């Protein structure tokens, strides 16, 4: 039987939701590998809505589930209905929605809280010894919930290629081990069954980002 993988989204758009290219790369690779994607999102308001042309917040109000449905072509479920027993693995793409809608990392950094619903799902997969794939900013969720885990968000030294490298330092302060990696590479924490890759934490050609996300998906499926 095809492996069933939960893909949890956080809206639609890099600045206030899920990074669309990362989500697409995950869904394409799952399809290529013969796996069945089950797309979920929490039925909650977004923290805010960002005009992606101006890069500025607007006065609009949007719903995370409704916006995520754009990426899922309408084939999406409320995260509250997820049953870990029916699934083989979990993948959460990145985008600022992870840090704004699934957690408060965007405003509180290492002192953030993770949405109770999202934390419950992560803990359920972890307790069931089922693999979890995280890319871009989403490894911060694991860093917050699973002290001592191993993850990568790319590099820990800030430069033009790695503009968000301070994220790695904050994760280390939470007690996790950060492993430097290239954008097309993944890191596997075999103890916690976590597979992470940096994706758009790196200023890199989009095909390199797709390569890294694709490897993450393959490794998640291998562990499943």
From TrEMBL:
Gene3D superfamilies per the UniProt record, alphabetical: 3.40.50.880
Spans traversing the lipid bilayer: none
Name this protein carries in UniProt: GAL3B protein
Protein species of origin: Cinclus mexicanus
